[in-house]
Write a structure and sequence with these properties.
186 residues; alpha/beta; Rossmann fold; six-stranded parallel β-sheet; 15% strand
C-alpha cells in the first residue's frame, strides 16, 4: 500500500515531521510512506492557474492521485491550518479531476502546548470533507507537549504516543482497504 505523507510545516526539523516519520515507522507490513516535498508550491493565484497548473502543483496532485492513502501531520498556527498548507490544499482542490475524492486521509498533529493541535484538526477536517476526502474519524492523534516526546535525533521516546500512532496507522490501512473494496464494487 502506497501512502503519501504531507507535513504541514516546511521546517526540516519540525515536530510534525518527526511525527510523520513515526507514522511511517508504525505502518503495518506491506504499507510504505513517501513524504512529499511541496515547498515549491506557489501562492494560489487564479491568474497563474488560468495559464496552467504550475509544475509543483501538478506533481503534488498526481502523487496524491496515485497514492492509496494520505497522512497529514501538521502544527496549529493561530488556532488553525498553517497558511502554506491551506494554500497547497487550495491548489490541489482545483479542477474537476479532484485527487482527494474518496481518498483515505489520516490527520495527526503535534504541538509544544497541551492541546496537541485539536483546533487545526477540526478546521482541516472541514476542508477535506468539503473535498469529499474519506477522512479517518478514529482514532485521533493529538500530541501535546510534543517537544518532550521526541529526542534530538527525531525519535519518539514516549511509548504512549507511539501506541496512539500505531493504532491510527493500523486503522488507516484498514480504512484504505475498505475504500479500495468500495471502489472496486463501482
Amino acid at each position: 500500500m502506497d501512502i503519501v505523507g504531507i507535513c504541514g510545516s516546511l521546517r526540516g526539523q519540525s515536530i510534525n515531521r518527526m511525527l510523520l516519520n513515526l507514522a511511517g515507522d508504525c505502518l503495518p507490513a506491506g504499507a510504505s510512506l513517501d513524504v512529499v516535498a511541496w515547498d515549491e508550491v506557489p501562492a494560489f493565484n487564479s491568474d497563474v492557474m488560468a495559464k496552467g497548473l504550475p509544475p509543483a502543483v501538478s506533481a503534488l496532485r498526481e502523487r496524491i492521485r496515485k497514492a492509496d492513502a494520505v497522512i497529514i501531520a501538521t502544527p496549529e498556527y493561530n488556532f488553525s491550518i498553517p497558511g502554506m498548507l491551506k494554500n497547497a490544499i487550495d491548489w490541489v482542490s482545483r479542477g474537476d479531476d479532484q485527487p482527494l475524492l474518496d481518498k483515505p486521509v489520516a490527520i495527526l498533529s503535534a504541538t509544544p502546548g497541551p492541546l496537541g493541535g485539536a483546533r487545526v484538526q477540526y478546521d482541516l477536517r472541514k476542508v477535506l470533507l468539503f473535498m469529499n476526502a474519506a477522512v479517518l474519524v478514529k482514532p485521533e492523534v493529538f500530541v501535546g507537549f510534543a517537544n518532550q516526546k521526541f529526542d534530538a535525533d527525531g525519535q519518539c521516546t514516549d511509548s504512549t504516543t507511539r501506541g496512539f500512532v500505531q493504532s491510527q496507522m493500523d486503522a488507516l490501512v484498514r480504512h484504505a482497504k475498505r475504500q479500495q473494496q468500495l471502489q472496486a464494487l463501482g
